[in-house]
Design brief:
It is globular, with a radius of gyration of 15 Å. By secondary structure, it is of the alpha+beta class. The chain has a 4-stranded mixed beta sheet. The chain is built from 6 helices and 7 strands. 33% of the residues lie in helices and 31% in strands.
Length: 138
């Protein structure tokens, strides 16, 4: 996205999405992030004033606003990663939040939040993430 606020308004109107700021996940990469758990969408945009150094800027210039990554919710992220490795798909990055991080940044919605970002953009036109998100009961 070029304009995160404009995109949030669009998806709020279209999907009834309620967004939660998640900039803490993107700031190290020069991006601002908003997540809608009820609509299942995460929006990313360059931090205003830092567009030149943001990795998203060349992608936005080349492809426009488009799907960058698709997250698949899997029962066992490690098992899914093993299958990806069997297919010789490389991992770009991994996230495995502690319960303290989940409680502080994700409103305590989960007991497990683990993601593997796969290098599939050249093959599929977008990245694939394998995510294990165990919702907190009750």
């Amino acid at each position: 996205m070029h304009d995160l606020q404009k995109a949030k308004s669009y998806y709020t109107d279209l999907l009834g999405a309620t967004f939660h700021e998640a900039n803490w996940t993107g700031e190290p990469f020069g991006i601002q992030v908003a997540i809608s758990w009820n609509a299942g969408i995460e929006l990313c945009a360059p931090i205003p004033g830092k567009e030149r150094e943001c990795f998203l800027t060349p992608l936005l210039d080349e492809r426009g606003e488009s799907i960058l990554n698709v997250v698949f919710n899997v029962d066992d992220a490690d098992e899914a990663l093993a299958r990806a490795k069997d297919l010789e798909i490389q991992t770009i990055n991994a996230v495995d939040y502690t319960q303290e991080e989940i409680d502080r940044h994700l409103d305590g919605l989960f007991t497990r939040y683990k993601e593997y970002f796969l290098n599939t953009a050249a093959q599929r036109g977008f990245g694939i993430t394998l995510g294990q998100f165990d919702a907190k009961k009750g």
